[in-house]
Task: structure prediction
Amino acid sequence: MAKKYLGYAEQELQHTLARFLDNNIKPLAPEKVSILSQAPLKWEQMMELQDLAVLEKDGYLAVENGYAEHEDGSIRVAVLTDMPGVTPQMWDWWFGWHGSQDMRYKLWHPGAHLAANWEDGRADHCYIGRNSVIKEYIGNTIQDAVIQFKSPLAFGFSKQAVNEPDKAVFICARIGHPDFPVDYGYLVHQVRATENGSEMRSRFWVGGQYISPRKEGKITAALVNVVKRVKKLPKNFAKDLFQHCAEEMKHLAGFLPELYQEQAKQTELAVAGAIIPPTHQDFDQVVMNTLFNKIDPGQRPALIVEPKTVEDIIHTVKYAQRAGKRITVSSGGHSFSANFIRDGSILLLMKHFNQFEVNPETMTAKAGPGVGGSVLLAALYKQGLFFPAGHCKGVCIGGYLLQGGYGWNGRKTGIACQHIIGMDIVTASGELVYADETQNADLFWAARGSGPGFFGIVTCFYLKVFPLPKYRAAMSHNFDIKHLEAVYRWAHEAGPNIPTAIEFQLIMSRHMLNLLGPGIEALAPIFADTEEEFEAAKGFMLNSPIKNKATVSIPAFNPGIEMLYKSAMTHYPSNHHWGVDNMWTHASFDDLLPFIKNIADTLPPAPSHFLWLNWYPGNINADMAYSKEDDLYLALYSCWKDKNDTAKYGNWAADTMRKMEHLSVGIQLADEGLHKRTAHFMSGENLKKVQEIRQRWDPNGVFFEWHSKPE
Result:
């Protein structure tokens, strides 16, 4: 690495930035000089780290300038800087712009700053969610650090603070070692607008009690203990940091307006996550990799963005407005119709929003849309908890919950979306809001059931979780296809009396159990809360009037959640092409039978299959957009590996379902094929209400609707 130096080298003085280089640091105001000449303040006079949100309030704290030292080696520093002619937006831009070049960083404090670069090696202008590696003098000591910029939300500031950058911006970061996974402290700069410009309220908490591991683990914990013992802050570090901050903030504020006017480019999109343009050599492959269904939709977005932070999403939405683009969103890519792939759109892939927290005491969880349902459920299992997550691995909760959510134990818990307590949503205007039954209630109502037609980007779901049912098992009876009529008649007649602890379903395929020929698997996953309920559920299968016709019977055993998922995935393999369609119905068995026989006769090769799910009595107990259910759920899944077979199998599901749609009351959005067949997916009254709410929240149509909707 080249030796770092203060100021500009001779050749750098020819650069256009050199005119902003001023080696003369202006003297500090008398009140700050006075502070430097006095003893440190008492520790308790300085604001606690956990009280950061108080900075959002108007007025000032008792201490706006000063520093304190603790006997454990930690320090607290506060600096207030008046900045006439400077706006919060300018500072927000500065923190993204300066970090990619030493020359830019040196402008801030030519007598102390040596080097800065983004850890990810990129040079674009974004800071939240990225790490800046810096080298600078604090006093007479060179300090190396990695400044890990975080969302203000992660530091406890409100959504309002994020939504009002013209009023104030909050620059928040962890301070750590650039080579070891140890953090030394925290910094926060609030830049709030004043009548003549703005003022910066800087806060630092460093060393001692603020040293912590960057990553969880025994090794990093041990390293932190060593650092606390042997790595002490330099003598007078609090005093030197106070002076350094006061000098650099005042110095830069003097020329920031002119620098901003010359260098800022408001038309650019700058986010911490990856931006993938159509010119990228692997753009087509990236698009296809987003799809669980490998049928090429024949459309391409204008840009792909992989946001890492809420701020990334906000910036992307506002950029879309400036660029006249529309937005699509994918959490896991399991939309069979590829609703999120639209020509000319900006596609947001939510894979980085994959964090979750579980609170067993309140029986709640919060989770990002990119969290896999199977991942969440496995974590809940370990804590004796449960949520009706989807049946397939890889299905993320974002799209799953918005479209409804048919999951494990769904007949008892009901549709999953009715267990959403609240949501954080970025709206079409780029505003971050919270929605529940009392706040932004119309948005909350519309989100639960709108699926891919929702007009917002959910960044976090707040969920109600349940105790894990004590008694769990799976049973199955597997029948040769020659028993088709007897099997489906039994399922239809028994439907109203099937215990709700059983999620009873029939799967017809040409390769039953992946071992035998054409047949029907009668599956009974059981989730029972009491022994009595468990015995009744087992009794339904054990007392079946057609159990003796089964070729293979598997008695009740507890397979564990992982095996349940593995079993389900044998019917839904990845890297395949899919044609799907579905319907809700309460039709008589005699009306359904001819079509079931036709399905058996025309069913494409396995793993293509026909799903029959006994759902009733149904359990919609929340007022929400979701509004279509019935006694039976029937779904067709045509599946093939070779793309050359698309013409042969691609329309089978839609064409077959079209023949029997007179028996349907509508579809559910999980297995929709609205690009091929229009169908009702919510009540007419609810669809009308959704569209009215859409007009309020997305009047300019930033978000796409469904491929088709009934008139």
Remarks:
- The mean pLDDT is 95.
